[in-house]
Amino acid sequence: xxxxxxxxxxxxxxxxxxxLSLSSSTSLDFKSTYIVHINHQRKPDIYSTHYEWYxxxxxxxxxxxxxxxxxxxxxxxxxxxxxxSLTSQQVDELLKSDSVIDIYQDTVYQLxxxxxxxxxxxxxxxxxxxGLVNETLNxxxxxxxxxxxxxxxxxxxxxxxxxxxxxxxxxWHGECESGKDFASSLCxxxxxxxxxxxxxxYMAMRKKNDKGSEIVNNSPRDTEGHGTHTASTAAGSHxxxxxxxxxxxxxxxxxxxxxxxxxxxxxxxxxxxxxxxxAGMERAIEDGVDVLSLSIGGLSDHYFRDAIAIGAFAATxxxxxxxxxxxxxxxxxxxxxxxxxxxxxxxxxxxxxDFPAYGVLGNKNRITGVSLYSGKGIGSEPVGLVYNKGVKxxxxxxxxxxxxxxxxxxxxxxxxxxxxxxxxxxxxxxVKKAGGVxxxxxxxxxxxxxxxxxxxxxxxxxxxxxxxxxxxxxVGSDPNPTVxxxxxxxxxxxxxxxxxxxxxxxxPNNLTPQILKPDVIGPGVNILAxxxxxxxxxxxxxxxxxxxxxxxSGTSMSCPxxxxxxxxxxxxxxxxxxxxxxxxxxxxxxxxxxxxxTLHESSVGAISTPWAHGAGHVDPQKALSPGLIYDTSAxxxxxxxxSLNYSLEQIQMIAQNPNVNCSRKFSDPGQLNYPSFSIxxxxxxxxxxxxxxxxxVGDGNSxxxxxxxxxxxxxxxxxxxxLVFGKVHEKKRYTVTFVSKKGDAIKDAFGSISWINSxxxxxxxxxxxxxx
Length: 772
What we know:
Layout: H1 10-19, H2 25-28, E1 32-38, H3 50-59, E2 71-75, E3 81-86, H4 88-95, E4 100-105, E5 108-111, H5 115-119, H6 135-143, E6 145-150, E7 191-196, H7 199-209, H8 212-215, H9 226-235, E8 239-244, E9 247-252, E10 260-265, E11 267-268, E12 271-273, H10 274-287, E13 291-294, E14 296-297, H11 307-316, E15 321-325, E16 344-349, E17 353-354, E18 356-361, E19 366-370, E20 383-387, H12 407-410, E21 414-418, H13 424-433, E22 438-442, E23 460-463, H14 465-477, E24 482-487, E25 491-492, E26 520-523, E27 527-530, E28 549-552, H15 555-572, H16 578-587, H17 610-613, H18 620-623, E29 628-629, H19 634-642, H20 648-655, E30 677-681, E31 687-696, E32 702-709, E33 714-719, E34 722-725, E35 731-740, E36 748-756, E37 761-770
Parallel strand pairs: 6-10, 6-13, 7-10, 13-15, 15-16, 16-26, 20-21, 21-22, 22-23, 30-37
Antiparallel strand pairs: 1-3, 1-4, 2-3, 5-12, 5-14, 8-9, 11-12, 17-25, 18-19, 18-24, 20-24, 27-28, 29-31, 31-35, 32-34, 32-36, 33-35, 36-37
Helix pairs in contact: 6-15, 9-15, 10-11
């Protein structure tokens, strides 16, 4: 999979031939995959390639145990080093080498699991907002390539139809790899590349059960659906008469339907391993993608230990925009993934479309929820309703976990199940196996009023916490509770929308609190997009139904929306840097819903804050003409890294440059020229002063005045208060001084700083935190 040629010495060839006859199964039981950071400049001249050097290095270990294939990947673009299957003794020996900077064990990352173009105000055909469609932009869109790192792709999906697409850009260096059930001919002018990276996952599975070769389907084919869904969301072609069993019917298409798609399969049954992710990112960079979309994440770790952050830095300094999902661990605070400032971190919000389901309780009270159930209902006659009955093996039946329901008590009845612990669709299967005829999935306090529609295996609806509590109270007070369920199909123009999804991970940024994250939110709840032909939409083993489209929720779904929008902006402004594109998306985002009310979050129904929605919900029409941008270079990010407590070698590893030094550093990481502010006050620092630089990308002669919105506990002064520009691309600096007023004891607060003229509002959110 690497473009580097393999050159071996005669001795090594003989060594390999002799080793192939030996069994390595015993040694594999004690091995793990490690990523070895190497100083590239120390390569001896006797080796013509790094691959040859690394191979010789491994074979020279005194603990070398005759494993014929210890070297998994060689990295040169996204990282400096290699991934190998090693014992702990081999790791210790390698660390003694002057060429080895550090060694990290392979990390497992997880996937963050139609109407949206209209909701975002985009044209049906081009993807561009009304009034901005022209022949030049259409041609540029055809040249934009979005690389999606995920579970692969289902190439037969109509979302990847290349009708009307011109020839593939000549600068493209990618490939369509053949593999199991995947022929290279399946790619076309739309899906221009497909690759798979499995070695890290393979070694983990082999270590676990010695069946890696049987488990890993070495092919770009998507057997899970997630990768097809995200790729088609970003840049899927127009598909008429699309729906999910009749729900959300209409024309399905991605955000940038004229852009190209390249799929990199890095996620497998056991998850997404950092060694595979790095290999996929390296290949995507070398192939020539313009946008990288990763709906993958893990716990935030130091940037020098985060494969996605390292690969994203390599991509960013080459002009590639990187969009990543924020995570699905909300509403817990400090639950974000992918918080590096060179990454655009995306949270999730709702659409103005819903799939209502209704219930009438025996006390005549009418309840409303959501559902994607498409089968035969339970009729119009009341059916018995049961909750929290029959505890078995210390498992509460209120959660409807496997084996927890007593068939004698639930047979022929609708069961109320609390949300949590196990998968939502699995609860319906548990109810069905126990003899239940329907289910009401009721939220608890953790999920609040957020309702996610699912296609259950039996008639079922999901309700928020308030309705759920009413149902629980009714069942507990009525000796013979009953319910009638019905389903309402698809409803549009739902209000309020958007609402921040409860599952969307929240700030503050646990790794670098001076950088406000997430950056923005986009549509991520009940999203219709392409799906695999291998598994049913519910992903349950018993689900034999197949659908070319599926409705799924998660920040995994919001991330490719922003990836597609970045492609549109890149086509409109081909010379803009990744940070300029991010700035445009952030400073034009809105914080009012379609009722002209401040954004709320569904977990508690309260007003949302920038820790949940960042700068706000993206507005692609305004993002294409933001007026001013906050531009940040790779050198600025290095200066930011130098302001952290990292060693020079760790910074050089992230920057992929052994010559980097920290002769320039910020006194505070928050000095980075970022489009938002995160202010940390303490007992000894009641004054914080930051300087920002904005670049005029609007009219040549323009004047902007500042508008400040802040809490009473903080005094905010902006100098100058007016920015006067005489030409396009002119830069202006301003300084903001934040002063915490004495006597005010609060934990956090929020505000904004906006630069306004008759055409533009360039808004930056501000978060304030007080520590003891």
